[in-house]
Write a structure and sequence with these properties.
By secondary structure, the protein is of the alpha/beta class. It has a single domain, classed as Rossmann fold (3-Layer(aba) Sandwich), CATH 3.40.50.150. The chain has five helices and five strands.
Amino acid sequence: MDPEILGHYEKGVELERLAIGSSQIEFARNKELLERHLPPVPARVLDVGGGPGAYATWLAGLGYDVTLVDPVPMHVSEAAALAAHSGHPFTATLGDARDLDQVDDSFDVALLFGPLYHLPERNDRLGALSEATRVVRSGGIVAVAAISRFA
């Protein structure tokens, strides 16, 4: 991971981001869209680049079997703590969206709500999408978010 990006996230800026300001709208809208398309519980969800676990916590609370993967050690620690204290546990592990450790066809859903805008090189973005597709079973869902270069 780019040291500048890692340094930014190691300041702890992500922990409450989706709970404050206009980011609350992003979180609410993404949850609304996911609820329309997610398979029924207890489907397996891989939250790639899931940060400190906002979506993972929400999904685990709904009854999904959630694994979060993030390249930032602080995020993984924060997510693991959240999972341990939320009453709805999920797994949090260190990993790279471009080279996932998960087995082929092992999830029903993969979320990529952060990795694509941190991968400026096209080949890296394609690698992350390819990895998400690889770990999701046939007929499963890969949900992504990206930021336009004009944003």
